[in-house]
């Protein structure tokens, strides 16, 4: 009797398992909406997290569901048609999930440890790295992100710009360490058109401890 | 002879409540002004239509700022306070829209969809192709359909909608759909009809004065 029950359970779980697919969820912010004031206003943090990031998460789940269905149907064409939606929303989810963690209320003034050494080696100085990242981020046309990333193959830090929500690693191979969202939604309510002011100010709330940790992981994993 | 910021044909608050005064002010005096300044710094050429049509011969600064200047110069004219224009296209353009899309409402649906699905910054367009047919498309950043070799659909734009976040964020935040829906209230259809009748239907791009 138990063998029969076991067999029925095994058969039904084969049918049920594919239906239970993990969905992405909006990560909590590691701080209150007002924690990053006066650099980033509470209003921006709330809309950015609860509306923009939440929408990427929802749309990513929808896109992945459609991708699964297309695969079940054996339609390669339909899978390919979903690549934009996956890149936009998947990239948006990846990028913002990183972003919340690399900002903090009382940012340490400069990176330390291995990261500090690497910055000195690859840019000459912390300030030079900042100047480059500021210029790159400010100069992005339209929407995108400026990144400090790690090139594992060449063992060096690099500055890169990505358009829209293109995720850094999938697009360039660089491991993301510190990113600046320069979509207008990231700053407009507070800074209006003054993107340079926002980009320069963001270093006051940089969570260099977290960035050092990301660097360590990227280097040693 | 350098490019100039064209004056707005109306005061900053006249498109309220659909497009807010603060956005109109910033959009015109900061964003468009910056495109003009940067364009003047990037090229000595003065025919903006020719620049757009030959954009592949110019550096990216001209593409971004030349596009920005052309697009916004028309954008201000494509809008007008409620009551100052017909609320729908008229004449030949109306017939053409109905023949192409089925109805004006269907055209608006397609245009709205183009505006909604443009990811990131860009514009949605209604334009006239070389063969005289109407089409709807969107472009990224400050590209426009005059830009041969750059735009997916090359055509003469007769109506455009800015969907950069700066065009709507102060009032609508992430609600781009609501912005688009409200924007239809201030479309200056008389001007759009003029652009079709006098320029696009004759295969000529709409000129801007500056």
Automatic annotation (TrEMBL), chain A:
GO terms for molecular function: manganese ion binding; superoxide dismutase activity. Its EC number is 1.15.1.1. It is an enzyme of class 1 (oxidoreductase). Residues 112-213 form the Manganese/iron superoxide dismutase C-terminal domain. It comes from the Eukaryota. It catalyses: 2 superoxide + 2 H(+) = H2O2 + O2. It comes from Brachionus plicatilis. Destroys radicals which are normally produced within the cells and which are toxic to biological systems. Keywords: Manganese, Metal-binding, Oxidoreductase. GO terms for cellular component: mitochondrion. This is Superoxide dismutase. PROSITE patterns: SOD_MN (PS00088).
From TrEMBL, chain B:
It comes from Brachionus plicatilis (Marine rotifer). SUPFAM superfamilies: Fe,Mn superoxide dismutase (SOD), C-terminal domain (SSF54719), Fe,Mn superoxide dismutase (SOD), N-terminal domain (SSF46609). Residues 2-80 form the Manganese/iron superoxide dismutase N-terminal domain. Pfam families: Sod_Fe_C, Sod_Fe_N. Residues 89-193 form the Manganese/iron superoxide dismutase C-terminal domain. Keywords: Manganese, Metal-binding, Oxidoreductase. The lineage of its organism: Eukaryota, Metazoa, Spiralia, Gnathifera, Rotifera. The keyword Nucleus does not apply. Destroys superoxide anion radicals which are normally produced within the cells and which are toxic to biological systems. The keyword Endoplasmic reticulum does not apply. Its EC number is 1.15.1.1. This is Superoxide dismutase. Belongs to the iron/manganese superoxide dismutase family. GO terms for cellular component: cytoplasm.
